[in-house]
Design a protein that fits this description.
Layout (H helix, E strand, L loop, with lengths): L1 H21 L6 H33 L1 H23 L7 H15 L3 H13 L4 H13 L9 H13 L21
Helix pairs in contact: 4-5, 4-6, 4-7, 6-7
Length: 183
């Protein structure tokens, strides 16, 4: 470790020596040199911020900005509905958000992340039993979830969160053809 420290210190001394050699010698020149270096660094930051600002403004005026606004209002409506329908802490917005996330992660077999979210869910004082009944409801309604559509899973998780006692969906109808036998 002492080798690395000495190597770093030697490199730092060499860099300072090169900077001093590049600047003309005289009183106050080192201060002027440092001020120029700082001024160059400060000028770069506003340019970066100015280039980032039009991108954000352009996004707000686009169609995506309108979609985000309706998506946000939909989320707020879902939280309000959950608070109205569910009694107790299961209807609190933080419990709804974390709980639905835990159930979705469990469904997608991301158990490590689900358990980390479940720790937060418990820390907020949310009822762990509601996770269990919601996941049971989700399993019972598995045939109504389209694996290619994320909204299908999210919609079903929300429906099960609001009323986990939904009756199970009927199994798909069996084909009317009798089974064939091979002889």
């Amino acid at each position: 470790m002492s080798y690395r420290v000495l190597n770093f210190a030697g490199g730092l001394c060499a860099a300072l020596w090169l900077l001093a050699a590049a600047a003309p010698i005289g009183p106050g020149n080192s201060i002027a040199f440092a001020q120029k270096a700082l001024a160059q660094n400060n000028d770069a930051k506003p340019a970066d911020q100015q280039s980032a600002a039009p991108k954000e403004g352009a996004k707000e005026g686009s169609k995506d900005g309108a979609k985000d606004g309706t998506k946000e209002s939909q989320k707020i409506d879902e939280f309000t509905e959950a608070q109205r329908v569910l009694n107790g802490p299961a209807g609190n917005p933080e419990c709804v958000w974390l709980g639905r996330r835990v159930v979705s992660l469990l469904w997608r077999d991301d158990l490590d992340t689900a358990f980390r979210h479940l720790d937060l869910y418990d820390r907020f004082g949310c009822p762990s039993g509601h996770i269990q009944v919601t996941f049971r409801c989700l399993v019972l309604h598995a045939n109504s979830i389209d694996p290619k559509a994320a909204d299908s899973l999210n919609g079903r998780v929300h429906a099960c969160w609001i009323s986990p006692a939904l009756p199970a969906a009927p199994p798909p109808a069996a084909s009317a053809q009798p089974p064939t036998t091979t002889r």
